[in-house]
Amino acid sequence: MTSAMHAVLAIAVMAVVTFLTRALPFLLFDRGGNPPKLVLYLGRVLPPAIIAMLIVYCLRGLRGASLFTPAGWLPQVIAVAAVILLHLWKHNNLLSIFGGTILYMVLVQVVFA
Amino acid sequence: MNRKALAAAFPVTVPVLMGYLSIGIAFGLMLERAGYNFIWAFFMSLTIYAGSGQYLGVELLATAAGLGTVAVMTLLINFRHLVYGLSMLEKFRGMGWRKFYMIFSLTDETYALLAGAAVPVGVRPRDFYFAVAILDQLYWIAGSVIGGVAGGLLSLDITGIDFAMTALFVVIAVDQWKSAKEHLPAFLGAGCTLLFLILVGEEQMLLPALGAIVAALLLLRPRLDRQDAEGKEADT
């Protein structure tokens, strides 16, 4: 299988699965009745767990970093802290995401280059 | 589609315009950098249309992840949409063929607008909802194509732009943290993932970590459900 073909299939899978997650409540519960308690429970507790998982996944590169070469970990640590503080302070998604990203880009391209 | 509904919907969608353009541009840039140009960005934003899902999609495409992994990861990152749909059952009732599109386009931001915005006087609610949904997706497609084109034309040094994905997830986590009654699920998610990062390494970590998270949440249900019930009683 060529890589372009694989990419087309992967995008198709993402599209179908994304649509299904949005359509499922309508397919199951549009005719009245209440969703099973287990579904409501997972819908409540799973999202924060998944987001925490994705943050750890995004920062997985820190695992191999040595404490004595701060260029390998300090930019991430500073930028994540900046995003958290910005977001607690201003509650503005855009400012938090782009402030943190620009800071990170400056750190890896200029400060720790 | 009538112009009155579009005119009424536009001011409501301006925050999403700002957000989707910029987050879409970052997506297009990242995708271009992973070796897929703006045409790929266009089709992904047209057919998938999910912010965090597509950010993760860049990663999945770049690492040529297996289709099974792609399916499971997409399912789990979009699991929250299940909850959105539950609260839109009434609103979308009776929308006919447009209902299909409303369900397809139910992103976090469109959900937030539909759940929060008051329908302006003189506009039929269903036309208004549809206009909001259409405008939001147009912004998203425009942003991702602009990012893809810019990434191909400019020889900007965009090293580090992929941090936008980390930042997006951190922002969502901060919001969830503030609204959550219990923080055990977040710790559990981080802990399980760290464990499998150390045990099996970064190539294979996600699926076992997901399995462990779901299993642990199911095992802890008696405890977490009880906490929730107590929290509700305390509220009243």
Report what the structure shows.
The complex is a heterodimer of chains A (113) and B (236). Chain A is 75% helix and 0% strand. Chain A is mainly alpha-helical and 113 residues long. Chain A folds into three domains: 1-33; 36-63, no CATH class; 66-113, no CATH class. In chain A, helix 3 packs antiparallel against helix 4 (93-111). Helices cover 75% and strands 0% of the residues of chain B. Chain B has helices at 3-33, 38-47, 51-62, 67-77, 81-86, 98-104, 108-116, 125-153, 163-179, 184-200, 206-219, 221-235. In chain B, helix 1 packs parallel to helix 8 (125-153), helix 7 (108-116) runs antiparallel to helix 8 (125-153) and helix 10 (184-200) runs antiparallel to helix 11. Chain B is globular. The mean pLDDT of chain B is 86. Chains A and B meet through helix 1, helix 2, helix 3 and helix 4 of A and helix 1, helix 2, helix 3, helix 4 and helix 5 of B.
Task: Give me the secondary-structure topology.
The complex is a heterodimer of chains A (113) and B (236).
Chain A lengths: L2 H27 L7 H22 L15 H17 L2 H19 L2
Helix pairs in contact in A: 3-4
Chain B lengths: L2 H31 L4 H10 L3 H12 L4 H11 L3 H6 L11 H7 L3 H9 L8 H29 L9 H17 L4 H17 L5 H14 L1 H15 L1
Helix pairs in contact in B: 1-3, 1-8, 2-8, 3-4, 7-8, 10-11
Task: Give a nutshell description of this structure.
The complex is a heterodimer of chains A (113) and B (236). In chain A, 75% of the residues lie in helices and 0% in strands.
Main interface pair? A-B, 67 and 91 residues
Number of helices of chain A: 4
Give the helix/strand class of chain A. Answer: mainly alpha
SSE series of chain B: HHHHHHHHHHHH
Give the terminus-to-terminus CA distance of chain A.
39 Å
What is the count of distinct domains of chain B? 2
**pLDDT average of chain B, as an integer?**
86
Portion of residues in helices of chain B? over 70%
Q: Report on the biggest sheet of chain B.
A: none
